[in-house]
Amino acid sequence: MSLGVVERPPIRGRKHFLSNSQNLLIVSARHRSHRLNLMNTRRHFLTTSLSALGASALPAIEPIKRSGPSKMELGVAAYGFREYFEWSRDKKNKPKAGHAQITILDFVNWCADNGVPGAELTSYFFPPETDAAYCEKVRALADKRGVRITGSAIGNTYTNPPGEKRDAELAYTKNWVDFCAIMGAPHIRVFAGAAPKGMSLEDGVKNCIETYQMALDYSATKKIYLGIENHGGIVAEPEQLIAIIKAAKSEYAGINFDSGNFHTEDPYADLAKIAPYTVNVQLKVDIKRKGAKENEPSDIPRVIKILRDVQYSGWFTLEYERSDDPFVSIPKVVAEIRPLLG
Q: How many Å from the N-terminal Cα to the C-terminal Cα in the chain?
């Protein structure tokens, strides 16, 4: 097996981990215990207390220092074709009229056929019995077709307290870190999640920092980035997300910048706040402001300028979420983006 990855039994996805956590590989790590003072406001807590969590020999994460011109490459996320995959989150998808069902291998071929250099292989659409051999097959096809695998995404949550649920989420993360290492995928977009019912925001953030750090400690051994996405829950606002990232102690920490996930009064201003910490980009073709009843088209040139202003270099991946036919619409958006990236 390549890249020194230890082979494990076939993975069956998130549900398998959450219902059978006692049988999984459990991350061994020292849990940090800290008392958090009660604060009057969410922002006050995040800006004054989180730096005290998770101390280690490594410095806290600061904005990524880049030099030279911004260089972005085009990718497409498998999620745009979510209704057409044979498998979705360990269940058979119902065939959709108009197109034959596809597999992850078919999606790699679609990227090659459409001149898309990068493919994000979202974990949800892999077969339930995905194992190291299947990941080797995916990598071999991508190599032969000239497609680079930009990363993956997993349906995790990091807000659980110490115990079986947290252990299961860590085991789930570790397996996909291993799979990404086999496939040559440098990044996984992960989710902070929402605080469980009855848990305070402060405790949810504390749990996320602890769990994220343990996941990073493992991903660093495989040289895989874990980018927390601005995706609601405890990271619905930029200040929350930045505080969590700044508390991390790893070169492999950062933000998965999703252009459509801030539903605030000024999403573009909030995207500018997280841009300096970006390790991967997902472009959505729509945004929805706070209080708005309808989506509005994303200002793609403005999104690109925000990233160029911080000299971001890396993947610029289209994650298409509209409900129309992606086989028709995604190539049109790709054609619109290409000249903008230069």
A: 38
Instruction: List all residues 6 or more positions away from 338 whose beta carbon is below 8 Å from its beta carbon.
Output: 74
Confidence of residue 13 (pLDDT cuts 50, 70, 90): low
Percent of the chain with pLDDT over 90: 79
User: What is the distance between the alpha carbons of residues 125 and 61, in angstroms, rounded to a whole number?
Assistant: 32
State the average pLDDT for the chain.
87
- Mean pLDDT value of segment 317-323: 97
Q: Mean pLDDT, to the nearest integer, of 307-329?
A: 97
| 10-21+66-341 belongs to CATH 3.40.50.720 | no
- Predicted local distance difference test score (pLDDT) of residue 60: 62
Compute the average pLDDT of residues 200-209. Answer: 95
Reported confidence tier of residue 37, pLDDT bands at 50, 70, 90: very low
The dihedral formed by the CA atoms of 268, 272, 273 and 276, expressed in degrees to the nearest 10: 150
The reported pLDDT for the residue numbered 224 is 98
Q: Considering only residues 316 and 6, tell me which one the structure prediction assigns the higher pLDDT.
A: 316
Q: Where are the domains of the chain?
A: 10-21+66-341
HEC readout, the chain: CHHHCCCCCCCCCHHHHHHCHHHCCCCCCCCCCCCCCCCCCHHHHHHHCHHHCCCCCCCCCCCCCCCCCCCEEEEEEHHHHHHHECEECCEECCCCCCCCCECHHHHHHHHHHCCCCEEECCHHHCCCCCCHHHHHHHHHHHHHHCCEEEEEECCCCCCCCCCHHHHHHHHHHHHHHHHHHHHCCCEEEECCCCCCCCCCHHHHHHHHHHHHHHHHHHHHHHCCEEEEECCCHHHCCHHHHHHHHHHCCCCCEEEEEECCCCCCCCHHHHHHHHHHHEEEEEECCEECCCCCCCCEECCHHHHHHHHHHCCCCEEEEECCCCCCCHHHHHHHHHHHHHHHHC
